[in-house]
Amino acid sequence: MDLVSLNKAHIVENFIHRVGKHCESSSLRDMFEYYGYPMSEEMVFGLDATFGFGFFDKSNQFTDIVEDNIPFFLGGKQNIISPDSLACRILGVSLRKQSFTSTDKAWEESKILIDNNVPLLVQCDLKYLNYFDFENEIHFGGHFVALGGYDEERSVAFVADTEFEGLQEISIERLKIARSSEHGPPFLRPKNIQYSMSVKEKHPPLSAGIKLAIQQVCTNMLRASLSNNGIQGLKMFANSISDWKEDLEGIIISPYNGKDVNLAQLMFELTYGYIEEWGTGGSCFRKLYLDFLKELQEHPELRSGPKPWSQHDFDILYEVIPLLETVVFYWKSFADSLKQEVDEYKEDCLEHVNLDDIQRKVQKIVHKEEEIFTKLSKIKI
How far apart are CA 254 and CA 16, in angstroms? Predict the structure, then answer.
């Protein structure tokens, strides 16, 4: 790329993007490598301990979380990037959060940091990132990219985004719109949020930090503070399936494109996306977590570094991995069942689906995941 004046254009020196699976862990991974902590995305995902489960419907306090006309939402995480990022604390990295009411002020602050070779994590509404090729117009304000540069003479910014090779070009104005979108539930609106990193000196041994991260995930699943999260949330979701004949009946106006759509068909498609697509890495983030645990089996710092793991710790790991492989299969099987019904029967999918059968699949997941995280909770710090 041609060199131009720093006050008009700049690319962060030596910033590298590697293709990833999930926007947050992929962006964090890129940032960690830039600051001298190269590691896999799976390791980042495991260290950040945001894995979990959440089920949100129209009941009680969850009405502001679910989109209009959509009866429920589910996800395989319980937290998003924040200044308290566990992965950052484990690695001795400080994460600074900034939020702006003015889109122009946000961009000017971003430029100052980029000019000083400080890459940024930036929250965006996915719909406005036009390097994606979407069939439908989908607003999702919880998407993260790494901002790595800009060229004001061409009016473009350069961002690193999950599954794309290298840096993607997007117009600066469009990025401003994506960063300030007010679509969707309030907790997912980008609010011109950006994060920058700085490296601190002190941090715990990685072997101890990994145990801390595993314990946090066990808390997420077994001792969640809200009844709709963790294992209890999974049970709520499993129980709700028996009511789908009534809850998913009829035609609604799609919140995504404003067209009439069969509710059951839409929800089957969305649920498949929540589980298998849209940055989950497969099986509602379970595949990412499985690969994290597999990587630990041969990690050198767990065997010979400070505070090495005991054989008992490794035995638990060896016992849990096959169980989680089964759970990954169960999640995919459940999601594929919904997709198959839609592919074959379209708007008549609700009339043909065997709700008892798919409910049993989720109940198996509940049983296995409770067993898995009970076992993992015995890996003590």
Answer: 38
144, β-bridge pairs: 123
pLDDT value at residue 60: 55
Write the CB contacts of 357 (distance below 8 Å, at least 6 apart in sequence): 337
What is the mean pLDDT of the segment spanning 35-40? 96
Q: What amino acid occupies position 49?
A: A
Contacts of 144 (CB under 8 A, 6+ apart): 23, 24, 27, 81, 121, 122, 123, 124
Burial level of 357, CB count in 10 A (0-12/13-18/19+)?
Answer: exposed
* Contact yes or no for 304/202 (Cβ under 8 A): no
Q: Cα dihedral sign for 242, 243, 247, 251?
A: positive
- Record the tokens describing residue 289, joined without a space: 């977590």
What pTM value is reported for the model?
0.93
Query: By the 8 A CB rule, do 74 and 65 touch?
Result: no
pLDDT in tens, 293-338: 999 999 999 998 789 999 999 999 999 999 999 999 999 999 999 9
User: 38 pLDDT exceeds 80?
Assistant: yes
Kindly list the distances between the CA atom of residue 11 and the CA atoms of 28, 131, 168, 199, 362, in Å, as whole numbers in the listed order: 18, 19, 12, 21, 47
Count of beta carbons in the 10 Å neighbourhood of residue 108: 11
Distance CA 87, CA 44 (A): 7
Q: Which amino acid is at 43?
A: M
